[in-house]
Structure formats: C-alpha cells, structure tokens
C-alpha cells in the first residue's frame, strides 16, 4: 500500500531529476573567450580549457562572485 511519505518521496525524486536535467541543459558548452568581457585582459589558455565557456578573467570572475554572494547570501 502506498502512503503519503512514498508519494512525497517520489515527487521529490522527480523534481530533483528535472532540476538536474535543466542544469545540464544550461551547462556552458560554448568556447571560452580569449579576452575578458569585463576588463579586456587576456584569459589564460589554462583557464579557458578548465572552465568551458568562461567569459571573464579570474579577477573579474572573483569580483562577480563576491557581488553575487552579497546579493544572495548562502546562509
């Protein structure tokens, strides 16, 4: 016999699978830029290879992440 906990568990599993599928569709597959879109500095080849679709140099990426963390704290 199926109870509410089983149904909730199944709904949660489906939602998690859908969320993961959506994230995978959004994963960057484009080539990385050779110059940072923020400051125009060259993006090192190692970073371009390590981070698919990167558009910022490491310094600008850190600044953007700090801004995001201030706007959306992870607590």
UniProtKB/TrEMBL annotation:
Keywords: Metal-binding, Zinc, Zinc-finger. It comes from the Bacteria. PROSITE patterns: ZF_DKSA_2 (PS51128). Residues 36-66 form the Zinc finger DksA/TraR C4-type domain. The keyword Zinc-finger applies. InterPro entries: Znf_DskA_TraR. One of its GO terms (molecular function) is zinc ion binding. This is Zinc finger DksA/TraR C4-type domain-containing protein. The lineage of its organism: Bacteria, Pseudomonadati, Pseudomonadota, Gammaproteobacteria, Nevskiales.
């Amino acid at each position: 016999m199926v109870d509410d906990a089983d149904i909730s568990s199944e709904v949660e599993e489906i939602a998690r699978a859908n969320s993961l599928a959506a994230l995978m569709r959004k994963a960057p597959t484009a080539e990385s830029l050779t110059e940072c879109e923020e400051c125009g500095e060259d993006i090192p080849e190692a970073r371009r290879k390590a981070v698919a679709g990167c558009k910022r140099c490491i310094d600008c990426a850190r600044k953007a992440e700090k801004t995001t963390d201030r706007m959306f704290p992870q607590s």
